[in-house]
Every structure is written in C-alpha cells, then in structure tokens.
C-alpha cells in the first residue's frame, strides 16, 4: 500500500521541490484557524494585512506547528468594487486575485497604491481547509453582497447570519425582546435580486445556518432559543420580502418536460427556497400556494418540497397533503420513507405524539432499518427543538425505542444511542434527563454487546 510519505516523496521527486512544510497537514490533527489585523496609511496609500494562524490543541498534540496555508485573496473598496493594489514584490498594481502563502505563525503582507481603506476578501475558492475568525460584521455584510467569489459571498453571509442568530438566542435566554436584524433581511433581498445570474448559488446563500450547526457554536446548546430566533428570522424574511419571493417563485415555474441539467436543478432549488420562506410567514395564501405546488405533481423534488413546507405549519392543507401523498405512494417503500421522515422532522409542538403514532402505523415495521431511520432517526437526529423538548419526552421516547429494538436488531439499536450521548453539550436539566435515559437502557439485563458499549461509553 502507498503511504502518505510515499506519495509526498513521489511528488517531491517529480517536481524537484521540497514539500517538507506540507507534511504537517498529514501529521497534525485539528482545523487551523486564521485571524487578521490590518492597517491603512492614507498618506502613504499603503495597506498592511497581518495574518495569524493557530490550531487548537488536541489530546495527543497540545502544541501545534505553523502550516503552509495558501490564502487566495483580493481587496474590495468601501463601495464593494474590486480595489486596485500592488502587493510588495509585484511589478504593477492589479485588482485581480492573488495567493498569499502563510507559512509562519504571524505574517504581514504590504500593499501599495491603495486609494481607499480596503476590505480583505480571504480564502477565495476555499483555497485552504481552515477557519477564518474575527471578521467584523460590517465587513461580512459587504463581502456577502459584493464579493466576486461565490465561496466568500456564501461564507461571509453564513458567518454574519450565525453571529446575528447566536446574539439573538443569547438575548432570548435572558428574557429580552428579540427583533429580526434588518441587515440580515437586506442581505437576503440583495441575494434574491441577483439570483437570476446563478439560481443554484442563491438557493444555498438564502438558507440560514441550521439549528444543529448553531447549537454547535454555543458553549451550552439551547435548542429552544435557537429554534425561536431562527424561525423568527425566517418569518421576517418571508413577510418583508413576500412580493419579491412570490415574483421570483412564479418566474422560476418550470415549463416543458422535467430536466435534470444543472441549470434546471438550480432553478427548482431556488423556487423551493422561495416557497419555504413564503410558508414560514404562516399565512393562508402561502399555504394554498404550497398545496397548489403539491397538487401539480410535476416532479418528486417539488412535491416533497411542498410537503415539507406544509409539514412545518399548522394548516388544513398540511393534513390533506399528507393523506394524499400516502395514498399515492403507499406501495413504494423508498418514497414512503420520505413521508415518515417529513412528519418526524416537523417542528410543530405535537410532533412527539405524531412520532408515537407513526410507530403504530400499519406501514411501520421495526424490523426494517430504513423505516426505523425514517421515523426515529429523523426525529432524534433531525428535529432538535422537539427531540430536546424541556419535558424530556423526546429522550424517553428514544430510550424506550432502543430498548424495544435491541433484541430485534442490536446493530441499529446501538447506532440510535448517539443522540443521547451528546448530553455534555446541554444545560444541567437536560444533561440529567439524557444521562437518566442512558442509565435506564443499561439497566436492561440482556442488551446486545454493541448497544451496551455505546450506552456505557456515552454515559461516561
């Protein structure tokens, strides 16, 4: 077998270049983090960008060495246009991207002939698998709206939205009022207005950071606060941008036969994102719009998107659409899994009762792993706000099911333990509830080896 060392050595032989500095990427654990400081000298028309790198310690490697990090970058002026500058060592000023090679723990790069204070656009094209930290909110907003690089536009928008939502969640936990951030709505409006050029990108850029991702950014995860503020932001975007969303939704209507080319896929994706925002506003007209898309049955992508949007709102159209979908697809096992999963993933307050009911459905079979994952897996792994309900009902449900499943399929049961094993990330009450359910699983005298190991290790 060819080892990493063999591969690197072969590349060195072929190129005649030493790659010793790059070997640390293969031997050093963790994701590097980059922070920046910058300074602009108006009189000298000089801009200095200082980049610092570091990798958080891991158990076996408390001390990390600097890596060789290629940072593809450019500069924008305060209006969002490409800024002309001459990097130290370049023959002439340019507004094009260039690559800075960050090799030390801290390194300064100097640009001359810079007319106005610039905003750095870093890691264009995801030039290195690192995290960029500490970018000011106003800079993130400008990059998200104007940067020519799609990755930087998307990443900047996600970073800004994450910061806004986490701040709102913190205020919600303190009992303070939480108002939607106007700049977040303006960014969504700008993305929507420019979406004709690249619908696929717009579809991705319009989606807010997910609840599980946001929870990962918190020292103590609060699923209720995260869901509340994210849903409030989605409702605000859906309401305030309703005319633009509806116009774009209608313009993206597919005429002619179903197509799987990239452009068509992108248009469908953006159209369904528009529908999701419209239905998030929870008005009767949007519910009827989603039901009309469902009834049109043009393709499974649109049908499932409409059903998913309806499953998240309390409207008559939701119940009718679920019944119609079941009638149409009850004999197709794979498609029916989608029907089960959509219901188990619904953020509506009664979902725990719905999931209990699904376990007694004639088409639910505990011996079928895909069906188990479609119901129990979707609920425990894809519905944070309901699984982590403060009552602990979600934890009891999962533990009860694991105990029931283990004698039938110990392998799948063992894999189901994982959501309970995340107890360290939550508040003391939820920790106690999750640990209690893990202990209850372990009290069963005839557990399979896999389930016993997973539960005992998770309990710690």
Model description:
With 460 residues, the protein is an alpha+beta fold. Helices cover 54% and strands 10% of the residues. It has 21 helices and eight strands. The chain has helices at residues 4-15, 24-27, 137-146, 150-173, 182-193, 199-206, 211-216, 223-240, 242-251, 262-280, 284-296, 300-311, 316-329, 333-344, 351-359, 369-382, 384-387, 393-405, 410-416, 428-442, 449-459, and strands spanning 33-41, 46-54, 69-76, 86-87, 98-102, 106-112, 119-122, 131-132. The strands form two sheets. It has a five-stranded mixed β-sheet with strand order 4-6-2-1-8, with no helix packed on it. α14 (333-344) runs parallel beside α16. The radius of gyration is 26 Å and the shape is globular. 37% of the residues are buried. The model has no long low-confidence stretch (mean pLDDT 94).
Largest sheet: 5 strands, mixed
SS-based class: alpha+beta
Number of strands: 8
- DSSP helix fraction: 40-55%
Unreliably modeled segments = none
Topology:
Elements: H1 4-15, H2 24-27, E1 33-41, E2 46-54, E3 69-76, E4 86-87, E5 98-102, E6 106-112, E7 119-122, E8 131-132, H3 137-146, H4 150-173, H5 182-193, H6 199-206, H7 211-216, H8 223-240, H9 242-251, H10 262-280, H11 284-296, H12 300-311, H13 316-329, H14 333-344, H15 351-359, H16 369-382, H17 384-387, H18 393-405, H19 410-416, H20 428-442, H21 449-459
Parallel strand pairs: 1-8
Antiparallel strand pairs: 1-2, 2-6, 3-5, 3-7, 4-6
Helix pairs in contact: 3-4, 4-8, 5-8, 6-10, 8-10, 9-10, 10-11, 10-12, 11-12, 13-14, 14-16, 18-19, 18-20, 19-21, 20-21
